Structure formats: C-alpha cells, structure tokens
C-alpha cells in the first residue's frame, strides 16, 4: 500500500498486488498525526516521524519499507508513476503514456482555478516546439530512456533515477 496526499483534503491509499500492479485506491480522511512540537527541530522531526508511523499503522500499514510497483496513474489526484515526463511524451512512438480517459479526467482538474501551481498533461503539450527545442528534448529523452529514470507524480512531477531516488522536481 502507498499513502499520499490527494487533491483536496484527502489521503489517497493505493493498493498493489504481489506483482506490483495497482489493484485499487481509496480516499480517506487526512492522516491525524498528533505530536508535540519541540524547540529543537531534530527532536520535532523525530516526534513527528514516530507519530506518523503510528498513524500509518492505525490505517493498515503492516510495515514501513519500500515496495516495488509498476506504472499506474490516478488522474483525479495526480498520483502515479510514468516512465517519461510530460515534456517528453511527444517522443514516445506509440503516443503518450496517458490514455484518452486519463487525458479527459486531467482536463477536469483545472489546477490553476483551484489554486494549484502545477500543470496537467494535455494534447497541446505534444506540438508547438521549435526545431532546437525538439533536438534538445529528443537528446534528453534518449538519455532518460537509457538510464531507466521515471517520474513519480504526487501533485508534482518528481524525477527519479532507476533506483527510485528523487533527483529533481
């Protein structure tokens, strides 16, 4: 299970089978992490981490450790994993990783209207680039593919290396 903040005041719990494929997700009230703030930031972090771990166990986390999962996407909450950033989707031979249903759902979010700063993928992102931009982005796309990097979406695109370490956002 993966837990992450969704769009709005909700915690999204994403469930996976043993092969790492998403089976379903549920929306839950936000996690109640109850702890006392200290004057020492290191101590505050320790207290928060301990309270968070208890709160996560209370909603069903058996253990807090990394899991291996396959690509998935929940457009409603902008949560998921994609192989390529949106700026590189135009170079994928079979078309963007997004299904027509996901693209339609993304257009309903209207992030700017709802006070969010991120952009959501749209088919307009596939055209309108200069020759120089296409050349630079194509090189980055080929490098990205060769190194196994991927994108973790949590209302922002976090670029990750092949080991899952976040390298940029």
Description:
It is a single chain. The protein has about 170 residues and is α+β, with helices and mostly antiparallel strands. The chain has two domains: about 55 residues, no CATH class; about 90 residues, no CATH class. The chain has three helices and eight strands. The strands form two sheets. It has a five-stranded antiparallel sheet, with no helix packed on it. Strand 7 and strand 8 form a beta hairpin. The radius of gyration is 18 Å and the shape is elongated. About 10% of the residues are buried. The mean pLDDT is about 80.
Shape: elongated
Q: What sequence of helices (H) and strands (E) makes up the elements?
A: EEEHEEHHEEE
> What's the gyration radius in Å?
18 Å
Instruction: Count all strands and give the number.
Output: 8
Backbone structural class: alpha+beta
Largest sheet: 5 strands, antiparallel
- Major β-sheet strand ordering: 4-5-6-7-8
N-to-C terminal Cα separation, in Å?
23 Å
Uncertain runs: none
Beta-strand proportion:
15-25%
| Helix count from the secondary structure assignment | 3
What is the residue-averaged pLDDT?
82
Helix content: 25-40%
Q: What is the count of distinct domains?
A: 2
């Amino acid at each position: 299970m993966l837990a992450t903040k969704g769009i709005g005041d909700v915690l999204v719990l994403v469930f996976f089978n043993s092969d790492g494929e998403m089976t379903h997700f549920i929306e839950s009230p936000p996690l109640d992490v109850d702890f006392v703030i200290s004057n020492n930031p290191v101590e505050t972090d320790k207290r928060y981490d301990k309270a968070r771990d208890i709160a996560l166990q209370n909603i069903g986390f058996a253990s807090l450790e990394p899991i291996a999962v396959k690509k998935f996407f929940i457009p409603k909450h902008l949560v998921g994993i994609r192989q390529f950033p949106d700026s590189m989707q135009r170079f994928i031979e079979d078309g963007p990783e997004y299904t027509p249903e996901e693209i339609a759902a993304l257009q309903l979010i209207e992030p700017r209207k709802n006070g969010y700063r991120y952009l959501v993928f749209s088919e307009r992102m596939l055209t309108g680039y200069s020759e120089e931009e296409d050349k630079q982005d194509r090189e980055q796309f080929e490098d990205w593919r060769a190194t196994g990097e991927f994108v973790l979406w949590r209302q922002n695109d976090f670029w990750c290396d092949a080991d899952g370490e976040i390298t940029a956002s």
